[in-house]
């Protein structure tokens, strides 16, 4: 359980860090770029993927490149959502991307659903809709927050689906993950070099390194928890998602003085119930 708690804290720390650094005029895309440099190195050291025997012909390079584009793009959407919608709503939208992933599993991978999983998906969709509607008010700012929340929700689900599809083609998870990180770094670095005519400012590179460490720690601890509790995947799934939502709410209320509308409160409750239903459906 300590691993799940640590993974959840790392996940929320990434969101808090992005929000605070943006307020201090750090550049998100530069931080995100160097985050993937560190994450790719740590991924190689931790998971020890067999990159030497990658087949140039059989490796699904188009999917890897697509994921390499999606990863920094969705991370940037996350940063924008944290600024416009707040950490509370952003964390819920990010965690409930699993609802769309499960729908894709049903329609694309022909996964069988039981009643609890259906209830969890329906509640999750309602939770996200309530969160989006609670942002609806006059002004371009609220419209932007709705768009970025929706992009975070859909984006993380699309990454999850493409990663599952890539590993389903025979590429090991660790190899796919490492190639994704490397591709994301190379493409992002090319973008900032074209835009800024440099590889980034030193302060952004340093912040990106810390971001990459915490981002990878979140993934590594979560995977390690699944390995240690391989007979209880529901516990890991529920524990991680619920803790991230709860920590996200607390950090939003305590550190950033975000306010909860009635629709947001109902959405939060439905989100937790949704995750619980999806977890129990695994038992």
Automatic annotation (TrEMBL):
Keywords: Membrane, Transmembrane, Transmembrane helix. InterPro entries: AA-Vitamin_Transporters, EamA_dom, EmrE-like. It is a multi-pass membrane protein. It is found in: Membrane. Residues 3-132 form the EamA domain. The chain crosses the membrane at residues 28-47, 59-80, 92-109, 116-133, 145-163, 175-193, 205-223, 235-256, 262-282. The keyword Transmembrane helix applies. Belongs to the EamA transporter family. This is DMT family transporter. It comes from Acinetobacter faecalis.
